[in-house]
Amino acid sequence: MNQIKNVYLSNISEDVWAFIDSLPAKVKQNEIEENAFLSDRALFTLEPNTLFISNKSISCQFLDYACSLINLDPIEIVTPDSHEGRLSLQIMNDQKLVDRLVHLGKQNGINLRAYSSTTEFYQLAEFLNKKVKVNLPFSPTYNHRNTVDLFGSKGGIRGLVEKQPLSSGLKMAPGKIFTDKKEAINYASELISASQGVVIKTNRGHAGMGIVIIPPGKIDLNRKKEDQIEKLIGFDQYWDMFPVIVEKFIDVDPNIGGGFPNLEYLIMPDGDLNLLYSCGMRVTNGVFSGVEIGPEAISPIVLEKMLTIGNNLGILYSKAGYRGYFDIDFAAGRDGNLYITESNLRQTGGSHVYHLAKQLLGSDYPNQTYLISDNTFKLPAGEWTLAKIFKILKPLLYSVAKKSGIVVVSENMLARGQLSYVAIGKNRKDTNKLVSDMISRLN
Questions:
Q1: pTM above threshold 0.85
Q2: Is residue 360, in this structure, part of any structural domain at all?
Q3: Most buried residue among 72, 80, 116, 429 by CB atoms closer than 10 A?
Q4: pLDDT for 107-162, tens place per residue?
Q5: Which CATH number is 365's domain given?
């Protein structure tokens, strides 16, 4: 393992720790667990010579499967002794792991990477930098670390967009930011009418929590609107702890990227802006489940508009000092406008799809194939193992010769009764047929 020079942290929970920490105990534990179980998905974003620090152990069978698909060797996987959600802090308190990292970095230092460049991640980097040289190739420098939380929050991106000229193409649904929940509810009540709905969301929610979608007609205009809105929001304490954003409901066109097209970029250490991929997001009631990538996902005309917006926003991020992954979520309105809904300054639930496709099919994969992913596909009741999934789906599993098939991208999620997969076909029709055949076999 002397060739190891990169260290990667799957610190998903850390990215929204303040929000997760505000949840009721059982809900909080469930979110921490799900994020830990999704850690093995990150294997497909890695490169050889990496030490992968995961909150959940990864079996040799699944590791062999991933390595054989994308030529990942050599790779080393370690899991900290404790599991409390904030992986960076867990590493600092694990002396054996600290010693291992120091040993790796003695000669040339280490390249430290993570799902998200969190406050805790920078604490870890400072802690290790006292012992070995630490490079952060896909993170802002320490002096620009505030860009992550600033632009990665719903209030932060709204503030940035509202300052830009109309010529930039940057646009969000009309709305306001509130620090008082009651004021937010009153404003939402003013906006709601027979033809207009609203979306209410916290500054940084997670997994569908912290967002309430109220389309036209959901509120009875003959009853007190404020009471109905408060009931829909609920009484979780995060509504009182964080800023609340209220914005006009956008009626989306599902024919444009499923209604929610997306771009993901990578800003390199020198500030260069690289587009990784465009996709349509699979979103149900505000909950993201996966992506669709390919020529049929988004029309060239719409994509051109998206890229103008994405490039302008990316340049702003780069000038502000941000480095690393980021995405832009859009709502494609039936009115013909593209509205930015949020921007995540981190890796995303589609990053592994991009890296997997590039490894399997080369850089021109978007023009050759159509990809559909699902991170949390619900399996029928029963006990599920990787061996069982492989046996049932054997005829459908990815074939190097055919350059198509199903790739299982998480073994750990099977224990939660969920399948995380990427389906690869020649076009949208073939890939949808592949998914349909998979579901039939699983049932």
A1: yes
A2: yes
A3: 116
A4: 889 999 999 999 999 999 999 999 999 999 999 999 999 999 999 999 999 999 99
A5: 3.30.470.20
